[in-house]
């Protein structure tokens, strides 16, 4: 990881930074309630099938990863930068993201005294998708990226269908992860040893499709083709909704219907923010989080693990929020208040970093 303090940053789309930042803020909000037993339903993932507002967060972030790849790499390809050198840069950064994810999980394993180390996770999936989509952007022209995206959607959808079940632990993705990751998955079925990981290996194929959709959206954004974003969003949502009758919307499995539904919403969100911020000058709310996403996400995780390891998290929540709020408002509001305070803390940190033009990169 490096730290830069420079005024020579390349041109950026403030709408992309804002969307990335708002997505990171949403991640911090849903990942850090004061009390997991008392959380408002929209701030929880669907128990299995379905799609809540919380289930839109991670695919939106991967969509923005794809958009950012297009905005960063396409100009360099057009000016003739060596593809081999660009590939090494992409793979090096992908390895760093993946390595940071492994380090975070090592800290979580120690802080929470977990029985098993978890190999896969959010940053690991981002690293894999960034690397694969980056290589696609470098070596495949746009006309070849579309067939690859369609092949991923169709092929992965058929794989899951051939697995014979979409139910927990019995589906093909879970069985694949149990075979190759063993006990190093997110959760194990009690007594049977079958595992499941919502950021597992096989379901990363669906996540890569989301990233490739973002890659194409980034090309449209750079070309000023906002109508293409609106049209693609409508088509994806319609196809995703229709496909959900055949293959359910499911974040844990990252089904093809889920890719299309969430990708369509992401296309519309990007188009709306681009028109509002880049073209009409609305404030880029969330931009500071967007340009320091790694600092906010990794820093907040390290802080959480430190609080847990020191035994301070529960007393902090109880004295600062629950003790005086619960008798007045019930147990759910103080849990949300803690999460909002956590987001506000890191929003303040990145605002200070942004004011000093300090940006953490990996």
How would you portray this structure in words?
With 362 residues, this protein is mainly alpha-helical. It folds into two domains: 1-44 and 284-362, no CATH class; 51-279, no CATH class. The protein is 67% helix and 3% strand. The protein has helices spanning 14-31, 57-78, 83-111, 122-139, 142-162, 172-181, 204-222, 226-243, 256-279, 287-291, 293-310, 313-329, 332-355, and strands at residues 2-5, 187-188, 195-196, 358-361. A two-stranded antiparallel sheet has the order 1-4. A two-stranded antiparallel sheet has the order 2-3. α1 (14-31) crosses α9. It is globular, with a radius of gyration of 20 Å. The N and C termini lie close together (4 Å). Residues 1-10 have low confidence and may be disordered.
């Amino acid at each position: 990881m490096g730290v830069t303090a420079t005024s020579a940053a390349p041109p950026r789309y403030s709408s992309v930074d804002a969307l990335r930042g708002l997505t990171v803020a949403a991640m911090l909000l849903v990942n850090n309630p004061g009390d997991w037993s008392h959380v408002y339903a929209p701030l929880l993932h669907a128990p299995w099938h379905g799609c809540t507002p919380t289930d839109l967060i991670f695919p939106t972030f991967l969509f923005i990863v794809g958009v950012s790849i297009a905005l960063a790499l396409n100009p360099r390809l057009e000016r003739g930068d060596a593809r081999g050198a660009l590939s090494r840069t992409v793979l090096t950064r992908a390895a760093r993201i993946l390595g940071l994810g492994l380090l975070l999980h090592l800290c979580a394993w120690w802080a929470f005294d977990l029985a098993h180390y978890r190999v896969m996770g959010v940053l690991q999936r981002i690293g894999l998708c960034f690397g694969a989509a980056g290589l696609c952007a470098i070596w495949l022209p746009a006309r070849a990226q579309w067939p690859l995206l369609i092949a991923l959607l169709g092929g992965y959808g058929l794989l899951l269908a051939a697995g014979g079940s979409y139910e927990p632990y019995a589906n093909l993705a879970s069985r694949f992860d149990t075979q190759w990751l063993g006990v190093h998955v997110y959760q194990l079925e009690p007594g049977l040893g079958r595992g499941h990981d919502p950021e597992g290996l096989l379901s990363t194929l669906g996540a890569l499709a989301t990233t490739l959709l973002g890659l194409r959206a980034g090309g449209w954004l750079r070309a000023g083709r906002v109508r293409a974003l609106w049209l693609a969003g409508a088509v994806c949502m319609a196809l995703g909704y229709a496909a959900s009758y055949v293959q359910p919307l499911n974040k844990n499995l990252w089904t093809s219907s889920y890719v299309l539904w969430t990708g369509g919403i992401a296309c519309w969100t990007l188009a709306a923010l681009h028109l509002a911020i880049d073209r009409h000058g609305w404030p880029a709310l969330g931009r500071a989080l967007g340009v320091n996403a790694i600092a906010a996400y990794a820093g907040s995780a390290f802080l959480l693990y430190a609080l847990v390891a020191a035994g301070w998290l529960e007393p902090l929540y109880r004295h600062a929020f629950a003790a005086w709020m619960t008798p007045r408002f019930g147990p759910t509001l103080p849990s949300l208040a803690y999460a909002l305070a956590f987001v506000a803390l890191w929003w303040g940190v990145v605002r200070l970093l942004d004011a000093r033009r300090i940006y953490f990169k990996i």
